[in-house]
Amino acid sequence: WCWCLLAALGSHRMVGLRMDISVLLEPLGFVKVLEWVFAIFVFATCGGFRGETALLVSCEGVVNKTVTAAFTYPFRLNTVVFSAPDPKGCGGTWTDVYLMGDFSSSAHFFVTLAALVFLYCVTALVVYIGYNHVYQQNNKFPLTDLSISVLIAFLWLVSTFVWAKALADIKVATGASIVPGIESCKAPGTTCHFLSVTSMGILNVSVVFGLLNMILWAGNVWLVYKDTNLHSQWNRISESP
Fold it and tell me: Which family does it belong to (predicted)?
């Protein structure tokens, strides 16, 4: 995306730098700043998450021992193992217990999109501030910007709903429903009780920011569209008798 912008810019002769910070007060520039900030919030809230689920285990020679499984981004839960209740593993009845599910593809899609959008916004802001005269005098750059904005808005829609579904599954895979599926907890004399799991409120916030990004980019499509000759041509057609 960044290369598309730079290629569109470099195809013109009028590439002299003309700083104009006032463009940030205009809708197109202001929305781009918001998109830049919200992209940071997405990969900060999702990519930086660390959680833990805990069980209370009683077995041979061990009474009410807390065992934990720590998980983090990108949520490959099937590689996360619970700690053993004791060094002897409940007299040999406790085997390695893993969480279920691999949600890395959904998490990577969501966070990688945020990182790419962050880079695109930085590039676009550099162009808006330093080369606004190129943007205003030639329609090739606005058309490129419009195409990329439509694509990003669509990707935010897809990635947000994919990540929201994965988050719902992560909550199930780390919640109380995991206890009946643990074979070691079914051994004679062994009982397991779900104790706690780290709050995932921050991950819920990441979904909200995904939706906000989708809305912002949908609005951005309209703002960029107004700067293209497509909009002016449509106005001339609608005003003609």
Answer: Belongs to the synaptophysin/synaptobrevin family.
Tokens of 115: 């990182």
| Residue 147 burial (10 A CB sphere; 0-12, 13-18, 19+) | middle
Separation of alpha carbons 200 and 41, rounded Å: 15
Nearest to residue 47, comparing CAs of 121, 106, 98, 122?
106
Query: Contacts by 233-240 with C-beta closer than 8 Å and gap 24+?
Result: none
pTM over 0.90: no
Q: What is the pLDDT of residue 7?
A: 55
Structure tokens at 71: 């998980």
For residue 16, the SS3 value is: coil
Burial environment of residue 208 by CB neighbours within 10 A (0 to 12, 13 to 18, 19 or more): middle
How many helices (H) and strands (E) in the chain? 8, 3
- Report the 3 state secondary structure along 94-132: CCCCECCCECHHHHHHHHHHHHHHHHHHHHHHHHHHHCH
First to last CA, the chain: 40
pLDDT in tens, 38-94: 999 998 999 889 999 999 999 888 888 999 999 999 999 999 999 988 888 888 888
Give the pLDDT of residue 235. Answer: 45
Cβ distance 124 to 159 under 8 Å?
no
What's the length of the chain? 241
